[in-house]
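C-alpha cells in:
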C-alpha cells in the first residue's frame, strides 16, 4: 500500500472507531432491523432511508447532510455536502445531477482512496436504494432537474495501437498540465488544488488506479474525464475529442497503472519509495506533520463539543475528557508549543519518552491505552524526531489540563482480573467538553 493509502485507511478506521465511541457515550440504540418491504413511494423510501442515514452516515455527512459530522474535520477529502446536489461520480453531463444508479454504485462500492467505504456488504440493496432516496431529498435539485445521461459510442477494446493513440490524445488534451507527463505529476503546471468546499485536493496519481474514486476500468475512466468531477478542478472534456479518441485515452490511462505495493517484493518497495525517504529527510517538519495527521494525534489531543467535533480554535490544545473505566480519567495533554501549559518547555527527550514509552514528564506511566504508545515506539529515530520538530511549530494555545487520575488499587486489580481472566474489556468513554482551563497561566 502507498503511504497515502495507509493514511486514508488509518483515518477511516479511526473515524469509525471514534464515531462508534461517541455513539456509545451518547447512548445510541442498535440499528433497527430491516423492515419488510412493500410497494413504496419515494417519500416512504426516503423516510426509511432517513433511519439508515442516521444510523450509518451521520457521523461523517452530518445531521442535515452538510458534510459536517463529528468525524469530518480530520478527513481529507471531506465528506460530501449533500445539500448542493453536486457529485463527483456521474454518468451524466457536467453540471447535471447524477442518476440513481450512479449514487447507488457510489454507496455500494464506496469512493476508493477515501474514508467513504463501500456499504454493499453491510446494507441490503433495498436499504441502499432507500438511503439514496433520502440523500437525494437533502437537495432541492433532484426535485426539479432530470439527469442528462451521457451515452458514449461503442467501447474501443484496449490494444497497443489504441494505447499509442491514447497517448497522443493525452498530450492534445493537456492532461499533463495537472497529472504530469508520466501521470504522477512530473512537470505538471498546476500542483495545488482545492475543491469547491475550499478543501485541499490532489490530482489523482494516474499510475495508482486503485485510488480512483469511481473505479479503474476503461469505462470508469472514460466517464470521469468525459463528464468531469463536479466540485473539483477535474474538468469535463465534452466535445474535446471524438468518442473513439476518448476510449483510446481511457485505454492509455489504464495502461499507466503500476504494480500495486501489495504485489511488490521488499526490494521493489524500497526502490519505489527511495525518493520519498529523501524528501522526508530534506523536510522533517513536513514529514512530522504528515505523521501527526495520519496518526490522528489531534483526534484525541483536542477537546470536543457536544456533537463530537473538535472545538474551534482548540486543535491540539488537549483537554479531551477520556475515561478508561474503571482505570481512571486520562484528559489528553496540550501538545501546542505553549510554554506554560503545552510542550513549549519540555525537552526533546521528554516528548520522545511520552510518545514512545508512555512516561509523562512527572513520571506518570500511561497504560497502553487510550494512547497506543507501544505502536508509536516503532517510529524510526528520524520519524520520531520529525514528529517532535513539527509539534514545536504548532502555535501556542493556552489550556491547562489536569494530570491523569490514579486508579484506586483494589479497583485496578479487579479491572485487570476482568480483562485478563474474564476477558471483559475496559471501555473507553469520551465526554464532550474541555477538561482544561483555557487561558490559565
Ligand atoms: C467514515 C466517513 C463516512 C461515512 C460513515 C459515510 N461517508 Fe459518504 N463520503 C465520505 C467522504 C469522505 C466522501 C467524499 C469522498 C470524495 O470526495 O472523494 C463521501 C462521499 C459520499 C457520496 C458522494 C459521491 C460522489 O459522487 O460525489 C455519497 C453519495 C455518499 N458519500 C453517501 C454515503 C452514505 C449513503 C453513507 C451511509 C450509508 C455514507 N456516505 C457514509 C465519508 C463517509
Ligand atoms: C485542471 C487540472 C486537471 C486537468 C487538466 C485534468 N485533471 Fe484529471 N484530475 C484533476 C484533479 C484535481 C483530480 C482529483 C479529483 C478528486 O480526487 O476528487 C483528477 C482526477 C482524475 C482521475 C481520477 C478519477 C477518479 O475516479 O478518482 C482521472 C482518471 C483523471 N483525473 C484523468 C484525467 C485525464 C485523462 C485528463 C485529460 C483528459 C485529466 N484528468 C485532466 C485535475 C485535472
Ligand atoms: C487515542 C487517543 C490518543 C492518540 C491518538 C494520541 N494520544 Fe497522546 N496521549 C493520550 C492520552 C490519554 C495521554 C495521557 C494524558 C496526557 O496527555 O498527559 C497522552 C499523552 C501524550 C503526551 C504527553 C503530554 C502531556 O501533556 O502529558 C504526548 C507528548 C503525546 N501524547 C503525544 C501524542 C502524539 C505525538 C500523538 C500522535 C502520534 C498522540 N499523542 C496520539 C491520548 C492519545
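Residues out:
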Amino acid at each position: 500500500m502507498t503511504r497515502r493509502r495507509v493514511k486514508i485507511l488509518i483515518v477511516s478506521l479511526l473515524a469509525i472507531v471514534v464515531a462508534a465511541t461517541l455513539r456509545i457515550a451518547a447512548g445510541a440504540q442498535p440499528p433497527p432491523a430491516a423492515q419488510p418491504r412493500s410497494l413504496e413511494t419515494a417519500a416512504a423510501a426516503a423516510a426509511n432511508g432517513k433511519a439508515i442515514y442516521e444510523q450509518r452516515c451521520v457521523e461523517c455527512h452530518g445531521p442535515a447532510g452538510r458534510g459536517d459530522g463529528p468525524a469530518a474535520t480530520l478527513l481529507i477529502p471531506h465528506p460530501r455536502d449533500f445539500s448542493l446536489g453536486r457529485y463527483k461520480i456521474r454518468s451524466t453531463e457536467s453540471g447535471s445531477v447524477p442518476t440513481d444508479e450512479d449514487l447507488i454504485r457510489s454507496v455500494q462500492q464506496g469512493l476508493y482512496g477515501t474514508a467513504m467505504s463501500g456499504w454493499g456488504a453491510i446494507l441490503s440493496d433495498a436499504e441502499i436504494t432507500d438511503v439514496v432516496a433520502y440523500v437525494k431529498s437533502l437537495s432541492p435539485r433532484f426535485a426539479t432537474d432530470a439527469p442528462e445521461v451521457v451515452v458514449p459510442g461503442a467501447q474501443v477494446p484496449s490494444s497497443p495501437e489504441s494505447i499509442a493513440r491514447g497517448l497522443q490524445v493525452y498530450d492534445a488534451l493537456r492532461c499533463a498540465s495537472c497529472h504530469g507527463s508520466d501521470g504522477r505529476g512530473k512537470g505538471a503546471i498546476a500542483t495545488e488544488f482545492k475543491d469547491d468546499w475550499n478543501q485541499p485536493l490532489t490530482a489523482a496519481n494516474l499510475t495508482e488506479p486503485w485510488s480512483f474514486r469511481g473505479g479503474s476500468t476503461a469505462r470508469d475512466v472514460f466517464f470521469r474525464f468525459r463528464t468531469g468531477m463536479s466540485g473539483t478542478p477535474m474538468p469535463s472534456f465534452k466535445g474535446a475529442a471524438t468518442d473513439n479518441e476518448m476510449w483510446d485515452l481511457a485505454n492509455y490511462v489504464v495502461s499507466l497503472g503500476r504494480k500495486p505495493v501489495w504485489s511488490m517484493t521488499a526490494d521493489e518497495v524500497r526502490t519505489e519509495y527511495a525518493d520519498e525517504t529523501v524528501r522526508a529527510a530534506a523536510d522533517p517538519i513536513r514529514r512530522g506533520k504528515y505523521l501527526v495527521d495520519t496518526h490522528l494525534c489531534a483526534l484525541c489531543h483536542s477537546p470536543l463539543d457536544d456533537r463530537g467535533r473538535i472545538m474551534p480554535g482548540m486543535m491540539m490544545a488537549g483537554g479531551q475528557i477520556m475515561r478508561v473505566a474503571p482505570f481512571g480519567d486520562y484528559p489528553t495533554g496540550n501538545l501546542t508549543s505553549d510554554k506554560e501549559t503545552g510542550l513549549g518547555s519540555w525537552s526533546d527527550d521528554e516528548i520522545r519518552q511520552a510518545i514512545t514509552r508512555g512516561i509523562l514528564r512527572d513520571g506518570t506511566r500511561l497504560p497502553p491505552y487510550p494512547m497506543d504508545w507501544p505502536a508509536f515506539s516503532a517510529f524510526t529515530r528520524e520519524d520520531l524526531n520529525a514528529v517532535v520538530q513539527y509539534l514545536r511549530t504548532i502555535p501556542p494555545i493556552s489550556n491547562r489540563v489536569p494530570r491523569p487520575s490514579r486508579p484506586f488499587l483494589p479497583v485496578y486489580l479487579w479491572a485487570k482480573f476482568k480483562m485478563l481472566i474474564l476477558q471483559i474489556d475496559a471501555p473507553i468513554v469520551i465526554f464532550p467538553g474541555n477538561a482544561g482551563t483555557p487561558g490559565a497561566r
